[in-house]
Write a structure and sequence with these properties.
Length: 461
Protein backbone atom coordinates (compact mmCIF):
# COMPACT_ATOMS: atom_id res chain seq x y z
CA UNK A 1 0.00 0.00 0.00
CA UNK A 2 1.40 3.37 -1.00
CA UNK A 3 1.48 6.26 1.45
CA UNK A 4 -1.61 8.39 0.77
CA UNK A 5 -0.38 11.95 1.25
CA UNK A 6 -3.82 13.56 0.96
CA UNK A 7 -5.34 11.20 3.51
CA UNK A 8 -2.63 11.84 6.09
CA UNK A 9 -2.79 15.59 5.51
CA UNK A 10 -6.48 15.43 6.35
CA UNK A 11 -5.95 13.28 9.42
CA UNK A 12 -3.08 15.45 10.66
CA UNK A 13 -5.27 18.56 10.41
CA UNK A 14 -8.27 16.88 12.04
CA UNK A 15 -6.37 15.37 14.94
CA UNK A 16 -4.27 18.48 15.56
CA UNK A 17 -7.46 20.51 15.86
CA UNK A 18 -9.12 17.84 18.03
CA UNK A 19 -6.28 17.92 20.56
CA UNK A 20 -5.81 21.68 20.63
CA UNK A 21 -2.30 21.71 19.17
CA UNK A 22 -1.39 25.05 17.49
CA UNK A 23 0.76 23.51 14.79
CA UNK A 24 2.34 20.23 13.73
CA UNK A 25 4.65 18.74 11.13
CA UNK A 26 4.55 15.08 10.13
CA UNK A 27 6.93 12.91 8.14
CA UNK A 28 6.34 9.31 7.05
CA UNK A 29 9.07 7.19 5.44
CA UNK A 30 9.09 3.66 4.05
CA UNK A 31 12.53 2.61 2.87
CA UNK A 32 12.57 0.89 -0.49
CA UNK A 33 13.55 -2.78 -0.44
CA UNK A 34 15.30 -4.83 -3.15
CA UNK A 35 16.06 -1.82 -5.31
CA UNK A 36 12.67 -0.13 -4.96
CA UNK A 37 12.48 3.62 -4.38
CA UNK A 38 11.75 5.05 -0.95
CA UNK A 39 8.29 6.40 -0.24
CA UNK A 40 8.21 9.59 1.83
CA UNK A 41 5.69 12.30 2.59
CA UNK A 42 6.08 15.40 4.74
CA UNK A 43 3.07 17.41 5.85
CA UNK A 44 2.24 20.39 8.05
CA UNK A 45 -0.82 22.05 9.56
CA UNK A 46 -1.72 24.93 11.84
CA UNK A 47 0.51 27.80 12.87
CA UNK A 48 4.06 28.17 14.19
CA UNK A 49 3.13 30.92 16.66
CA UNK A 50 -0.31 31.78 17.99
CA UNK A 51 0.78 35.37 18.46
CA UNK A 52 1.77 35.94 14.84
CA UNK A 53 -0.35 33.39 13.03
CA UNK A 54 2.55 32.36 10.80
CA UNK A 55 1.55 29.13 9.02
CA UNK A 56 3.43 25.91 9.68
CA UNK A 57 5.03 24.44 6.55
CA UNK A 58 7.11 21.40 5.72
CA UNK A 59 10.22 23.63 5.65
CA UNK A 60 9.65 25.05 9.13
CA UNK A 61 12.10 23.96 11.85
CA UNK A 62 11.08 22.70 15.27
CA UNK A 63 12.87 21.78 18.46
CA UNK A 64 13.15 17.99 18.53
CA UNK A 65 14.24 18.06 22.17
CA UNK A 66 15.58 14.84 23.60
CA UNK A 67 15.47 13.06 20.25
CA UNK A 68 18.82 14.88 20.03
CA UNK A 69 20.16 12.29 22.48
CA UNK A 70 20.02 9.60 19.81
CA UNK A 71 22.06 11.88 17.53
CA UNK A 72 24.63 12.42 20.31
CA UNK A 73 24.70 8.66 20.92
CA UNK A 74 25.27 8.06 17.20
CA UNK A 75 28.38 10.26 17.21
CA UNK A 76 29.65 8.47 20.32
CA UNK A 77 29.22 5.17 18.48
CA UNK A 78 31.15 6.58 15.53
CA UNK A 79 34.04 7.13 17.96
CA UNK A 80 33.64 3.52 19.10
CA UNK A 81 33.83 2.43 15.44
CA UNK A 82 37.05 4.43 15.09
CA UNK A 83 38.57 2.78 18.16
CA UNK A 84 38.90 6.09 19.97
CA UNK A 85 36.87 4.89 22.94
CA UNK A 86 34.88 1.83 24.04
CA UNK A 87 31.56 1.36 25.79
CA UNK A 88 33.35 0.23 28.94
CA UNK A 89 35.83 3.13 28.92
CA UNK A 90 35.66 5.03 32.23
CA UNK A 91 34.70 8.62 31.51
CA UNK A 92 37.53 9.83 33.73
CA UNK A 93 40.05 8.33 31.31
CA UNK A 94 38.79 10.90 28.78
CA UNK A 95 37.89 13.80 31.07
CA UNK A 96 40.76 13.70 33.53
CA UNK A 97 39.43 16.40 35.84
CA UNK A 98 35.97 14.83 36.18
CA UNK A 99 34.83 15.37 39.78
CA UNK A 100 31.36 14.06 40.63
CA UNK A 101 29.81 14.14 44.08
CA UNK A 102 30.41 10.42 44.66
CA UNK A 103 34.16 9.63 44.39
CA UNK A 104 33.51 6.01 43.41
CA UNK A 105 31.17 7.04 40.59
CA UNK A 106 33.77 9.56 39.43
CA UNK A 107 36.25 6.72 38.94
CA UNK A 108 33.93 4.02 37.63
CA UNK A 109 31.18 5.61 35.53
CA UNK A 110 31.54 4.46 31.92
CA UNK A 111 30.34 5.50 28.47
CA UNK A 112 27.80 2.66 28.65
CA UNK A 113 26.34 3.97 31.92
CA UNK A 114 25.79 7.38 30.33
CA UNK A 115 24.28 6.03 27.10
CA UNK A 116 21.84 3.81 29.02
CA UNK A 117 20.80 6.29 31.76
CA UNK A 118 22.18 4.09 34.53
CA UNK A 119 24.84 6.39 36.01
CA UNK A 120 22.63 7.57 38.89
CA UNK A 121 23.79 11.16 38.41
CA UNK A 122 20.88 13.53 38.94
CA UNK A 123 19.49 13.95 35.46
CA UNK A 124 17.66 17.26 35.56
CA UNK A 125 20.54 19.68 35.87
CA UNK A 126 20.03 22.63 33.49
CA UNK A 127 22.85 24.91 34.55
CA UNK A 128 23.22 27.88 32.23
CA UNK A 129 26.95 28.32 31.60
CA UNK A 130 26.67 31.02 28.96
CA UNK A 131 26.88 31.11 25.18
CA UNK A 132 30.55 30.46 24.52
CA UNK A 133 32.15 27.40 22.96
CA UNK A 134 33.25 26.31 26.45
CA UNK A 135 29.71 25.80 27.79
CA UNK A 136 30.02 22.02 28.14
CA UNK A 137 33.41 22.24 29.81
CA UNK A 138 31.96 24.68 32.34
CA UNK A 139 28.85 22.52 32.83
CA UNK A 140 30.89 19.41 33.56
CA UNK A 141 33.12 21.36 35.95
CA UNK A 142 30.01 22.07 38.04
CA UNK A 143 28.47 18.62 37.77
CA UNK A 144 29.94 17.69 41.14
CA UNK A 145 27.17 19.80 42.66
CA UNK A 146 24.57 17.32 41.38
CA UNK A 147 23.30 14.58 43.67
CA UNK A 148 23.87 10.87 43.15
CA UNK A 149 20.28 9.59 43.00
CA UNK A 150 20.97 5.87 42.90
CA UNK A 151 24.00 3.58 43.09
CA UNK A 152 25.95 3.26 39.85
CA UNK A 153 24.20 0.80 37.52
CA UNK A 154 21.59 -0.17 40.13
CA UNK A 155 18.51 1.02 38.23
CA UNK A 156 17.40 3.14 35.29
CA UNK A 157 16.56 6.84 35.51
CA UNK A 158 16.35 9.27 32.62
CA UNK A 159 19.45 11.47 32.71
CA UNK A 160 19.87 14.69 30.74
CA UNK A 161 23.11 15.53 32.54
CA UNK A 162 24.63 12.21 31.45
CA UNK A 163 24.12 13.16 27.81
CA UNK A 164 25.66 16.58 28.33
CA UNK A 165 28.62 14.71 29.79
CA UNK A 166 28.70 12.56 26.64
CA UNK A 167 28.74 15.75 24.61
CA UNK A 168 31.84 16.83 26.49
CA UNK A 169 33.39 13.40 25.81
CA UNK A 170 32.84 14.04 22.10
CA UNK A 171 34.53 17.42 22.42
CA UNK A 172 37.61 16.10 24.21
CA UNK A 173 38.06 13.15 21.83
CA UNK A 174 37.49 15.09 18.59
CA UNK A 175 38.95 18.45 19.54
CA UNK A 176 35.76 20.11 18.25
CA UNK A 177 32.76 21.63 19.95
CA UNK A 178 29.76 19.33 20.15
CA UNK A 179 28.01 21.59 17.64
CA UNK A 180 30.87 21.28 15.14
CA UNK A 181 31.09 17.53 15.60
CA UNK A 182 27.37 17.13 14.93
CA UNK A 183 27.60 19.18 11.74
CA UNK A 184 30.67 17.40 10.36
CA UNK A 185 29.79 13.89 11.46
CA UNK A 186 26.01 13.81 10.92
CA UNK A 187 24.37 16.84 9.37
CA UNK A 188 26.73 17.13 6.38
CA UNK A 189 27.08 13.42 5.45
CA UNK A 190 23.31 12.99 5.76
CA UNK A 191 22.71 15.99 3.48
CA UNK A 192 20.62 17.85 6.04
CA UNK A 193 19.75 21.43 5.05
CA UNK A 194 17.36 22.47 7.84
CA UNK A 195 19.07 21.07 10.94
CA UNK A 196 21.13 22.94 13.51
CA UNK A 197 22.10 23.17 17.15
CA UNK A 198 22.14 26.93 17.73
CA UNK A 199 19.34 29.53 17.74
CA UNK A 200 21.06 31.56 15.05
CA UNK A 201 20.94 28.50 12.78
CA UNK A 202 17.25 27.95 13.45
CA UNK A 203 16.57 31.62 12.67
CA UNK A 204 17.64 31.07 9.07
CA UNK A 205 14.29 29.34 8.61
CA UNK A 206 10.71 29.75 9.71
CA UNK A 207 10.74 28.33 13.23
CA UNK A 208 8.15 27.05 15.66
CA UNK A 209 7.49 28.77 18.97
CA UNK A 210 6.60 26.68 22.00
CA UNK A 211 3.23 27.05 23.75
CA UNK A 212 2.19 26.38 27.33
CA UNK A 213 -1.23 25.79 28.86
CA UNK A 214 -4.25 23.95 27.49
CA UNK A 215 -7.57 24.80 25.90
CA UNK A 216 -8.45 28.48 25.89
CA UNK A 217 -5.46 29.24 28.13
CA UNK A 218 -2.79 28.08 25.71
CA UNK A 219 -0.28 30.82 24.89
CA UNK A 220 3.26 31.25 23.57
CA UNK A 221 5.98 30.27 26.05
CA UNK A 222 7.91 33.11 27.74
CA UNK A 223 11.22 31.97 26.22
CA UNK A 224 12.15 30.07 23.07
CA UNK A 225 14.77 27.57 24.21
CA UNK A 226 16.98 26.04 26.86
CA UNK A 227 20.58 27.12 27.59
CA UNK A 228 23.30 26.13 25.12
CA UNK A 229 24.85 23.93 27.81
CA UNK A 230 21.95 21.49 27.36
CA UNK A 231 22.80 20.96 23.68
CA UNK A 232 23.78 17.27 23.59
CA UNK A 233 20.69 16.39 25.62
CA UNK A 234 18.14 18.25 23.55
CA UNK A 235 18.86 21.36 21.48
CA UNK A 236 18.73 20.16 17.86
CA UNK A 237 16.21 21.94 15.62
CA UNK A 238 15.11 20.24 12.42
CA UNK A 239 12.34 19.49 9.97
CA UNK A 240 10.54 16.17 9.94
CA UNK A 241 12.22 15.47 6.59
CA UNK A 242 15.70 15.88 8.09
CA UNK A 243 14.77 13.71 11.07
CA UNK A 244 13.63 11.02 8.62
CA UNK A 245 16.99 11.20 6.83
CA UNK A 246 18.64 10.42 10.17
CA UNK A 247 16.14 7.63 10.82
CA UNK A 248 16.68 6.22 7.31
CA UNK A 249 20.39 5.83 8.03
CA UNK A 250 19.51 3.75 11.11
CA UNK A 251 17.07 1.68 9.06
CA UNK A 252 19.77 1.09 6.42
CA UNK A 253 22.57 -0.40 8.54
CA UNK A 254 24.29 2.97 8.95
CA UNK A 255 24.35 4.06 5.30
CA UNK A 256 22.95 7.42 4.13
CA UNK A 257 20.66 7.61 1.12
CA UNK A 258 23.55 8.60 -1.17
CA UNK A 259 25.55 5.55 -0.09
CA UNK A 260 27.81 7.32 2.45
CA UNK A 261 28.73 5.09 5.37
CA UNK A 262 27.87 7.07 8.53
CA UNK A 263 27.93 4.33 11.17
CA UNK A 264 28.89 0.67 11.14
CA UNK A 265 26.13 -1.91 10.87
CA UNK A 266 27.37 -3.39 14.15
CA UNK A 267 26.94 -0.09 15.99
CA UNK A 268 23.49 0.46 14.45
CA UNK A 269 22.47 -2.96 15.77
CA UNK A 270 24.00 -2.33 19.20
CA UNK A 271 22.09 0.93 19.56
CA UNK A 272 18.79 -0.87 18.91
CA UNK A 273 19.59 -4.00 20.94
CA UNK A 274 18.52 -4.56 24.53
CA UNK A 275 20.90 -3.04 27.06
CA UNK A 276 18.86 -2.41 30.26
CA UNK A 277 15.34 -2.89 31.59
CA UNK A 278 13.08 0.05 32.44
CA UNK A 279 11.52 -0.04 35.93
CA UNK A 280 8.11 0.73 34.46
CA UNK A 281 7.25 -0.22 30.91
CA UNK A 282 4.24 1.92 30.00
CA UNK A 283 5.48 5.48 29.58
CA UNK A 284 8.20 5.11 26.92
CA UNK A 285 9.35 1.54 26.33
CA UNK A 286 10.04 -1.76 28.05
CA UNK A 287 13.81 -1.43 27.78
CA UNK A 288 16.63 0.81 26.59
CA UNK A 289 19.31 0.43 23.96
CA UNK A 290 22.19 2.84 23.35
CA UNK A 291 20.25 6.07 22.86
CA UNK A 292 17.02 4.48 21.62
CA UNK A 293 14.20 3.25 23.79
CA UNK A 294 12.71 -0.10 22.77
CA UNK A 295 8.99 -0.87 22.47
CA UNK A 296 7.10 -4.15 22.20
CA UNK A 297 4.22 -3.42 19.82
CA UNK A 298 2.24 -6.64 20.26
CA UNK A 299 5.19 -8.74 19.11
CA UNK A 300 6.78 -6.22 16.76
CA UNK A 301 9.93 -4.49 18.01
CA UNK A 302 10.00 -0.73 17.54
CA UNK A 303 12.61 1.81 18.63
CA UNK A 304 12.25 5.51 19.13
CA UNK A 305 12.59 8.59 21.28
CA UNK A 306 10.47 11.54 22.37
CA UNK A 307 11.53 15.13 22.89
CA UNK A 308 10.09 17.85 25.11
CA UNK A 309 11.42 21.37 25.47
CA UNK A 310 9.69 24.55 26.64
CA UNK A 311 6.32 24.18 24.98
CA UNK A 312 7.36 21.86 22.16
CA UNK A 313 6.96 18.09 21.88
CA UNK A 314 8.41 15.75 19.25
CA UNK A 315 8.06 12.04 18.56
CA UNK A 316 10.10 9.60 16.46
CA UNK A 317 9.36 5.91 15.94
CA UNK A 318 11.13 3.35 13.75
CA UNK A 319 9.80 -0.10 12.88
CA UNK A 320 12.94 -1.75 11.49
CA UNK A 321 11.27 -4.96 10.30
CA UNK A 322 9.01 -2.91 8.01
CA UNK A 323 11.55 -0.20 7.13
CA UNK A 324 9.15 2.48 8.36
CA UNK A 325 9.90 5.67 10.31
CA UNK A 326 7.46 8.37 11.44
CA UNK A 327 8.43 11.79 12.78
CA UNK A 328 6.02 14.24 14.43
CA UNK A 329 6.95 17.74 15.58
CA UNK A 330 4.51 19.91 17.57
CA UNK A 331 4.58 23.27 19.33
CA UNK A 332 2.70 22.46 22.51
CA UNK A 333 3.95 21.17 25.88
CA UNK A 334 1.99 17.91 25.81
CA UNK A 335 0.98 16.25 22.55
CA UNK A 336 0.93 12.61 23.65
CA UNK A 337 -2.76 12.18 22.78
CA UNK A 338 -2.14 13.47 19.26
CA UNK A 339 0.85 11.16 18.94
CA UNK A 340 -1.17 8.15 20.10
CA UNK A 341 -4.11 8.75 17.77
CA UNK A 342 -1.98 9.53 14.73
CA UNK A 343 0.72 6.88 15.08
CA UNK A 344 -1.82 4.16 15.87
CA UNK A 345 -3.54 4.89 12.54
CA UNK A 346 -0.32 5.19 10.52
CA UNK A 347 1.34 1.99 11.71
CA UNK A 348 -1.91 0.01 11.52
CA UNK A 349 -2.42 1.01 7.89
CA UNK A 350 1.17 0.80 6.65
CA UNK A 351 2.44 -2.18 8.63
CA UNK A 352 -0.61 -3.87 10.17
CA UNK A 353 0.97 -3.36 13.59
CA UNK A 354 -0.76 -2.21 16.75
CA UNK A 355 0.90 0.11 19.23
CA UNK A 356 0.83 -0.94 22.89
CA UNK A 357 -2.45 -0.58 24.72
CA UNK A 358 -2.74 2.84 26.28
CA UNK A 359 -2.01 3.20 29.96
CA UNK A 360 -5.43 3.61 31.51
CA UNK A 361 -7.24 3.03 34.79
CA UNK A 362 -8.73 -0.47 34.66
CA UNK A 363 -12.48 -0.88 35.08
CA UNK A 364 -11.84 -3.27 37.96
CA UNK A 365 -9.16 -1.18 39.69
CA UNK A 366 -7.79 -3.06 42.68
CA UNK A 367 -7.66 -1.79 46.24
CA UNK A 368 -4.04 -1.04 47.11
CA UNK A 369 -2.82 0.07 50.53
CA UNK A 370 -0.93 3.33 50.08
CA UNK A 371 0.58 3.20 53.58
CA UNK A 372 3.91 1.55 52.62
CA UNK A 373 4.53 4.26 50.01
CA UNK A 374 3.73 7.38 52.04
CA UNK A 375 6.56 9.87 52.47
CA UNK A 376 8.83 12.32 50.68
CA UNK A 377 10.80 11.48 47.56
CA UNK A 378 13.18 14.08 46.19
CA UNK A 379 15.90 14.79 43.65
CA UNK A 380 17.38 17.89 42.02
CA UNK A 381 14.62 20.51 41.73
CA UNK A 382 11.76 18.03 42.31
CA UNK A 383 9.93 17.06 45.50
CA UNK A 384 7.30 14.31 45.30
CA UNK A 385 5.17 13.94 48.44
CA UNK A 386 2.91 10.91 48.74
CA UNK A 387 0.19 11.55 51.29
CA UNK A 388 -3.50 11.16 52.03
CA UNK A 389 -5.80 14.18 51.62
CA UNK A 390 -9.54 14.01 52.22
CA UNK A 391 -9.30 10.25 52.47
CA UNK A 392 -7.63 9.81 49.06
CA UNK A 393 -3.99 9.01 48.24
CA UNK A 394 -2.36 11.86 46.32
CA UNK A 395 1.02 12.88 44.96
CA UNK A 396 2.01 16.50 45.46
CA UNK A 397 4.75 17.60 43.06
CA UNK A 398 6.81 20.72 43.67
CA UNK A 399 9.22 21.75 40.91
CA UNK A 400 11.94 24.36 41.38
CA UNK A 401 15.08 25.50 39.58
CA UNK A 402 15.70 26.88 36.08
CA UNK A 403 13.02 24.97 34.16
CA UNK A 404 10.33 25.81 36.72
CA UNK A 405 11.28 29.47 36.40
CA UNK A 406 11.11 29.33 32.61
CA UNK A 407 7.75 27.56 32.54
CA UNK A 408 6.25 29.49 35.44
CA UNK A 409 5.63 26.32 37.46
CA UNK A 410 5.70 27.95 40.88
CA UNK A 411 2.75 26.22 42.54
CA UNK A 412 2.74 22.54 43.52
CA UNK A 413 0.52 20.19 41.52
CA UNK A 414 -1.63 17.77 43.51
CA UNK A 415 -3.07 14.71 41.80
CA UNK A 416 -4.94 11.68 43.02
CA UNK A 417 -3.03 8.39 42.89
CA UNK A 418 -5.43 5.90 41.32
CA UNK A 419 -4.44 2.25 41.89
CA UNK A 420 -3.77 0.19 38.78
CA UNK A 421 -1.88 -2.80 40.19
CA UNK A 422 0.23 -3.63 43.22
CA UNK A 423 2.70 -0.73 43.66
CA UNK A 424 1.52 0.89 40.38
CA UNK A 425 -0.74 3.94 40.31
CA UNK A 426 -1.99 6.39 37.69
CA UNK A 427 -1.98 10.19 37.75
CA UNK A 428 -3.13 12.78 35.23
CA UNK A 429 -0.89 15.88 35.31
CA UNK A 430 -2.47 19.30 34.81
CA UNK A 431 -1.13 19.77 31.27
CA UNK A 432 -1.91 16.28 30.02
CA UNK A 433 -4.92 14.54 28.53
CA UNK A 434 -3.39 11.16 29.32
CA UNK A 435 -2.69 9.18 32.48
CA UNK A 436 0.91 8.56 33.51
CA UNK A 437 2.21 5.61 35.54
CA UNK A 438 3.71 5.94 39.01
CA UNK A 439 5.57 2.89 40.25
CA UNK A 440 7.04 2.26 43.69
CA UNK A 441 9.89 -0.20 44.02
CA UNK A 442 12.81 -1.23 46.22
CA UNK A 443 16.34 -2.06 45.12
CA UNK A 444 17.92 -5.33 46.29
CA UNK A 445 20.10 -3.22 48.60
CA UNK A 446 17.02 -1.72 50.29
CA UNK A 447 16.76 1.77 48.77
CA UNK A 448 13.16 2.76 47.98
CA UNK A 449 12.12 4.70 44.88
CA UNK A 450 9.19 6.36 43.19
CA UNK A 451 9.37 6.11 39.41
CA UNK A 452 7.43 8.81 37.58
CA UNK A 453 8.06 10.70 34.37
CA UNK A 454 10.89 8.26 33.53
CA UNK A 455 12.81 9.34 36.65
CA UNK A 456 13.75 7.31 39.72
CA UNK A 457 13.27 9.55 42.73
CA UNK A 458 14.71 8.24 46.03
CA UNK A 459 12.68 8.21 49.23
CA UNK A 460 14.12 10.64 51.76
CA UNK A 461 11.56 10.58 54.55
Amino acid sequence: MTIDSAHWQTRLAELTKKHGVPGAQLGILRVGRDGAEDEQVTLATGVLHLGTGQPATTDSVWQIGSISKVWTATVVMQLVDEGRLALDTPVKEIIGDLDLRDPEVTEKVTIHHLLTHTSGIDGDVFTDTGRGDDVLEKYVARLGEAAQNHPLGATWSYCNSGYVLLGRVIEVVTGQTWDQAMRERLFTPLGLTHTGTLPEEAMLHALAMGHLGTGDEIAPAPVWGLPRSCGPAGLITATAADVLAFARMHLSDGVAKDGTRVLSAESVAAMADFQVDCPEKDLLGDSWGLGWFRCDWHGARAIGHDGNTIGQAAFLRLLPEAGIAVSLNTNVASAIALYQDLFEEIFAELADVRLPDRFEIPDDAPEVDITPFLGEYSRESVLEEVLVLDGKPVMRTTVSGPVAELEGASEPEVHELVPVAEAIFAVKPDKSAAYFPVRFYTLPTGERYLHFGARATPKKA
